[in-house]
Design brief:
This protein is 35% helix and 27% strand. It is of the alpha+beta class.
C-alpha cells in the first residue's frame, strides 16, 4: 500500500516539473533561463523559427532559475523599393 501511495505522489510531483528544454511553435516559444541558455537564446530561438521560414526576436528575459526567455517568430519585413 505504501509503495502505491509513494508512486502516486511521485507521479504527481513529476507532472509539476515544468519545461525541461526549449519549447516552441510557429508563433514563438520559451527557453528555460540559465546563464548558458541566455548566451545561446537567439540561436536556439532562430533554429525553431527557421523551420517555419521566419526569424526570431527575443521578447523577454527573466533572469531567475525557473523563469524563461520568451521569443516570437516573425516574417521578414518586405524591403521598400523606391
Amino acid at each position: 500500500m505504501k509503495a502505491i501511495l509513494l508512486a502516486a505522489i511521485g507521479l504527481a510531483l513529476a507532472s509539476c516539473a515544468g519545461v525541461s528544454g526549449p519549447k516552441g511553435n510557429d508563433t514563438g516559444g520559451i527557453i528555460p533561463w540559465s546563464p548558458e541558455n541566455e548566451r545561446q537564446a537567439l540561436w536556439l530561438a532562430d533554429n525553431n523559427c527557421r523551420a517555419y521560414s521566419k526569424y526570431a526576436r527575443i521578447s523577454s528575459i527573466n533572469r531567475n532559475y525557473g523563469d524563461y526567455i520568451g521569443y516570437v517568430c516573425l516574417f521578414e519585413r518586405p524591403r521598400r523599393r523606391f
